[in-house]
């Protein structure tokens, strides 16, 4: 299913991608811009979809599915005590897709900087557990 969504159209030398893919990238940019580097609750993902794309239940389900299953930008980490799913933002998957399909966005996101921050946060979390 992801291959259909990510199907590109070449016009001359310019590579084009679907609007849905661009919107997913914008959602991830918004998550990162709001300070979510390692994890984000599903309620916040849904809220960002409602604000940025649309509030219809089917739209929300579609974009959550694309972010989690089709593109793999978000991975399920755990559920909290209230039953809210907590997603882990998968920087490597984002880098791969963006590098393949939106090279100019890769420079804007500066994902290598974000990865360094994510790694330092993960190290802090490990240190706290010890």
List the helices and strands and how they pair.
Blueprint: H1 2-5, E1 9-11, E2 14-16, H2 19-33, E3 39-41, H3 42-52, H4 57-70, E4 74-79, E5 85-89, H5 91-101, H6 103-109, H7 111-129
Antiparallel strand pairs: 1-2, 3-5, 4-5
Helix pairs in contact: 2-3, 3-4, 5-6
Describe the protein.
The protein is an alpha+beta fold and 130 residues long. The protein has one domain: Arc Repressor Mutant, subunit A (Orthogonal Bundle), CATH 1.10.10. The chain is 62% helix and 15% strand. It has 7 helices and 5 strands, in the order αββαβααββααα. It has helices at residues 2-5, 19-33, 42-52, 57-70, 91-101, 103-109, 111-129; strands at residues 9-11, 14-16, 39-41, 74-79, 85-89. The strands form 2 sheets. A 3-stranded antiparallel beta sheet has the order 3-5-4. Strands 1-2 form a two-stranded antiparallel ribbon. β1 (9-11) and β2 form a beta hairpin. α2 packs across α3 (42-52) and α3 (42-52) packs across α4 (57-70). The radius of gyration is 15 Å and the shape is globular. The termini are far apart. Mean pLDDT is 79; it is low at 1-14.
Adjacency order of strands in the biggest sheet:
3-5-4
- Shape assignment: globular
Could you report the average pLDDT, rounded to the nearest whole number? 79
Secondary-structure element string: HEEHEHHEEHHH
* Low-confidence parts: 1-14
From the N-terminal CA to the C-terminal CA, the straight-line distance is 42 Å
Query: What's the total number of strands?
Result: 5
Overall tally of domains = 1
């Amino acid at each position: 299913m992801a291959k259909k969504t990510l199907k590109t159209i070449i016009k001359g030398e310019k590579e084009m991608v679907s609007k849905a893919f661009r919107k997913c990238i914008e959602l991830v940019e918004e998550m990162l811009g709001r300070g979510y580097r390692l994890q984000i609750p599903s309620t916040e993902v849904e809220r960002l979809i409602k604000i940025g794309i649309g509030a219809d239940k089917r739209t929300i389900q579609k974009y959550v599915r694309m972010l989690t299953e089709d593109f793999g930008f978000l991975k399920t980490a755990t559920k909290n005590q209230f039953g809210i799913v907590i997603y882990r933002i998968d920087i490597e998957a984002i880098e791969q897709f963006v590098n393949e399909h939106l090279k100019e966005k890769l420079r804007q996101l500066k994902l290598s900087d974000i990865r360094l921050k994510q790694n330092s946060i993960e190290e802090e979390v490990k240190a706290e557990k010890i």
